[in-house]
Inverse folding.
């Protein structure tokens, strides 16, 4: 339920558009209707809704036009946002930041977070501006960004980064405890991949791996030449 | 004082995660170091951040589905581990990290239930906003949005320090009582990091996932060994 957030976001614009308190209240009521979208791509809808409210205030459109615009676009834009931002861009930068932290330390973490936020805030601003300027034509602007194609590339890149992360984690475990610990890391990753692809639940899988790893550690410390 | 810090970090993270900005500051990769820094142990937070990020990389709010509350789990684990490390005088070690995840990592799953309850509360808040509008208070109706930020803050600010306190109480006792457990537990942590990397790869649902994941890991291992190892 994002209707409250939407009403909060658009209220400053409604104050400017409608001098009459009654008209402002009526407009605000329109934007308290059910709304559900991706929080980033919703910027395009906020921009487009302001575009339509200005036309309503000028008498060029009926009062229902902004609501109709929101209802038509919220689903498709939610799908685009989920597919690109939540399944592509953000996990890609999460994996990038994780690899950077493991390999370099906090400066790489800060750099990755800065890069993500510059990019995502620019996209949010671009979507808002496109919605405000183009109204219904925002769909064409969005299509020109080719976000689904980029999402596919980011997903492949993210998987590769997770692989790099695994390599570094295995090297770190080897450096800390010896070859056996590196082997435990790799074996847990392989078993975890099989289990998770078989739809095993995440935390139970992690707990089982930790328990087996601990038993392996007990065996390793008892073996000749162990810790 | 440490528990107030944990409460504040958890509460603000809960707001940033879904209610304001969403700039990755509530993701484990940022939140674990922030928690560590706030408690005076940045290296401890950094040790936890990358594996927890990979573990919960797939925890995203898609459509109507509710993922585990990775932010709540992260603050509980990082807070508990750092406080246990302080109590032991060692800082966060892999053994402490493993115990912290084992003890309080499940709070992320509990957080999913509290998130659902908060969503129901927000539905009631929306109805209240409409009533305020009917009564001629548009400003108050708009401000109802801000009240929606209070429950996630409060729930996280209560649960995270409680869980961190549990971890900080249990872990020193375990490691004092069984000092030889540190090395096996470090192996357990190594296994957890392996599963975390696999979970991270799986979160992308890439068609070429297994090949890319395996190839990249093999390449990194080869480079690491050739170069002489990454510390």
């Amino acid at each position: 339920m994002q209707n409250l957030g939407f009403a909060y976001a658009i209220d400053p614009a409604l104050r400017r558009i409608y001098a009459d308190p009654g008209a402002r209240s009526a407009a605000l009521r329109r934007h308290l209707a059910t709304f559900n979208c991706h929080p980033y791509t919703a910027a395009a809808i906020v921009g487009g809704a302001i575009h339509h409210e200005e036309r309503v205030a000028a008498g060029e459109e009926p009062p229902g036009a902004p609501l109709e615009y929101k209802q038509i676009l919220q689903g498709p834009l939610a799908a685009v946002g989920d597919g690109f931002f939540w399944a592509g861009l953000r996990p890609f930068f999460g994996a990038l930041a994780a690899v950077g932290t493991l390999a370099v330390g906090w400066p790489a973490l800060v750099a990755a977070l800065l890069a993500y936020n510059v990019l995502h805030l620019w996209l949010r601003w671009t979507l808002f501006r496109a919605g405000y300027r183009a109204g219904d034509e925002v769909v064409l602007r969005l299509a020109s960004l080719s976000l689904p194609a980029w999402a596919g590339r980011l997903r492949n890149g993210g998987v590769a980064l997770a692989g790099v992360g695994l390599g570094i984690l295995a090297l770190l475990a080897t450096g800390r405890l010896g070859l056996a610990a590196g082997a435990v890391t790799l074996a847990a990753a392989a078993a975890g991949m099989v289990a998770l692809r078989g739809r095993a639940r995440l935390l139970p899988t992690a707990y089982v791996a930790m328990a087996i790893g601990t038993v392996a550690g007990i065996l390793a410390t008892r073996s000749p030449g162990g810790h | 004082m440490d528990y107030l810090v944990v409460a504040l970090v958890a509460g603000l993270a809960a707001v940033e995660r879904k209610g304001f900005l969403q700039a990755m500051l509530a993701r484990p990769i940022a939140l674990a170091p922030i928690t560590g820094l706030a408690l005076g142990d940045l290296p401890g937070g950094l040790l936890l951040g990358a594996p927890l990020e990979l573990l919960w990389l797939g925890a995203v709010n898609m459509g109507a589905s509710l993922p585990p509350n990775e932010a709540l789990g992260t603050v509980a684990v990082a807070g508990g581990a750092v406080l246990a490390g302080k109590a032991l005088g060692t800082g966060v070690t892999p053994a402490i990290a493993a115990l912290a995840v084992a003890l309080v990592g499940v709070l992320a799953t509990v957080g999913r239930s509290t998130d659902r309850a908060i969503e129901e509360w927000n539905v009631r808040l929306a109805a209240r906003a409409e009533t305020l509008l009917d009564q001629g208070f548009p400003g108050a109706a708009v401000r109802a949005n801000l009240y929606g930020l209070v429950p996630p803050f409060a729930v996280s600010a209560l649960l995270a320090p409680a869980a961190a306190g549990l971890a900080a109480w249990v872990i020193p006792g375990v490691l004092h009582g069984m000092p030889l457990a540190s090395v096996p537990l470090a192996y357990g942590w190594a296994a957890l990091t392996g599963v975390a990397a696999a979970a991270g790869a799986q979160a992308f649902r890439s068609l070429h996932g297994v090949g890319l994941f395996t190839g990249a890991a093999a390449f990194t291992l080869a480079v690491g060994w050739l170069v002489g190892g990454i510390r």
The two ends of chain B are 34 Å apart (CA to CA). Residues 55 and 196 of chain B are 4 Å apart (CA to CA). The longest helix of chain B spans residues 107-134. Chain B touches chain A through 95 residues (CB under 8 Å).
